Amino acid sequence: MNRSDRRMVPAQLATVLVAALLLAIGLLPLTAEAQDWPDAFDPLQLLTLNLEMDPLDWETIQNDETFDIEVPAMFWADGEDSILVSVKRKSCDALGDTAAFLKVSVKIDINEYVGDQMWHGLKKLRLENGDDVDVVAEGLAWQLHRLASGPEGYDYEHPPAYTSWVKLNINGTYTGVYVNNEERDKQFLKNRGLYTSGETWLYKHDTRSIIELKVGDPDSPLFLALWYSPFCPDSTACPTPDPPTLAAELPQVIDVKAMLTMGAVNTFVQNPDGLWNHSQNAYFADFLGGRKRMYFPHDLDSVLARTFTQAYPAGDAYADSLLTISSFRAQYTLIMDDLLSGPLAEGGLVTLLDDMEILLTQALEADPNNQIPEGETVEDRFDELRSWVPDRIAEVLGQLDYTGVPDDPDGASALLLHRPMPNPTRGETHIEWAMPEEDHVRLDVFDVTGRLLTTLVNGTKEAGKHGATWEGVDRDGREVSAGVYFVRIEAGPRSACRKVVRLRR
Prior knowledge:
The protein is an alpha+beta fold and 505 residues long. The chain has helices spanning 10-25, 55-63, 135-147, 186-191, 221-225, 243-253, 256-268, 275-278, 317-322, 326-341, 346-365, 378-399; strands at 47-52, 71-77, 83-89, 106-109, 124-128, 163-170, 173-182, 200-207, 210-215, 282-287, 294-297, 416-417, 429-435, 439-447, 452-461, 464-470, 483-491, 494-502. The strands form four sheets. The chain has a seven-stranded mixed β-barrel, surrounded by four helices. A four-stranded antiparallel beta sheet has the order 9-8-10-11. A four-stranded antiparallel beta sheet has the order 15-14-17-18. A hairpin with a 4-residue loop joins strand 14 and strand 15.
C-alpha cells in the first residue's frame, strides 16, 4: 500500500500515541545518544540492535510480500535509550522455518514519526539477512568496496557506502547476524558534503529499464543530456555516439575512474548482478557547478557466483559500450592491477577475514539462519574464503590484458620496469627495464607477504634497456608455488614494482 493510503491498526496507533505522549513530557529522547556517522559502521565492532513492537505487527512484517507496509516500533542499540521508528520488510527472501521468527531483511525509518530524529547521523537503516549467499560474503564484498575507496580506485573522500555487521533482537528474541548497509539517500549525500538544495540529484539504477530519481526534481541536466545507451533506459533513445566521441566527452562529465572501479570490484567479488553485467544495482549522483557524476554500488547479495569468472564483463550495455573503448579498457585494467597489488592484495584480505572470523564466529554459531551449509562450520566457511582470495586474485590477474596500457607514464627520465612476459606463466618470466643513466641496480623477487625470495640483479648498469629472467625459483633453486609475486627494481633513488602471476603446472 502507498504511504498516503496506509492505515494503522489499533495496536499501531496506540504505540504511536504513547510515544508521542512520552515525547511531550520529556521521557523519550528525540535522538539516540551515540557516536555519529560513520562510526556506527565500524566493521570490527558488532553492535546489538533491538526492536520492540506489537507481536501482530511483527507477524505482519514477516509475511508482507508487498514490501510496503510500515509499522511502529521502539528501537535502540545496547547501552542506548530507545526511540520511536517505523519498520518495514525489504524484498529479500525470508530465512528459517520457525513461523514466529523468520529472518527477514528490514528497513528502519528513524524519522517517520518523529521529525528530524536521527540515529548516529542517519535517518534510515538497511539490515540485510544474507539470503542469496550469507552475511559473511555479502559483508566482505562491501568491505572490498570500502578498501577500494582510495586513490587506487574510487578516489573518494568517503567510501561509496559504509557497512558493518550487527546482531538483531526482535521482541527480546535473537534473530541473527545482519549486514548493516548505509542507505543511499539525501542524508547519505549530506554526510559526505555532497548535497546542495536544487543542485544535487541522486538516482537509483534499479533494473535494465528503470532508473528511479530518489533526490531532486525534476531530472538533472546531465541525465537529460546522456539520453542514449547505456545511460538511458529507453531503448528508442538517441543513438550512442561513436567510441572516439565517448572517450573524449564522458570523462568531462562523469568520474569514469570511479565508475570503472565499481565494475572492477564487483567483477573481482564475482557479482553477476551489477551495473556492468546486468545494467542494474547502482546509484549515481549528478551535480551543478562542475562536479562530475559519482557512482555508488548497491545490493551485493549475489556475490561469489563461481560461474562468473571473467575479468572483463561482456554482454551488457555498459560493458559493451565502454569497455570496448581502448582508453577506458586500459584504465579499467590499471585500476584492477592497482587494487590487487594494493588494497585488495592477498595479505590484507586474509587479515581482514581473520578479524571478521574473530568478530562474527560466536554470533554466527548462534544464528540458526546463518546460511552456512549443513555439515560445515563457521570456521570452514572462513577457511573457504581464505582459499578463495589467492585463487581469485591469480584468476583475475591471469586474464588482464595490458594491450594499450602505457608503460611510460612519467616520461623519458623515469626508470621503466616493463610488464614481465609471459604473465601469467607456468615457466620462466622475462623482465625488461630501461634507465635514464648509469647506476647501481638491484632487481628482487618477493612473495605477497614481502619476503625476499631471490635477487636477479645486483650491480652497476649503464643507461638504456636491460633484461633478466626469473625461472620461478627461490635463491636456493626451489620452485615456488602458484600465486602472486612481485618484482621490484631499485636504481639509485628510483624504484618500480610489477606483479608476476605463477600458475599451477
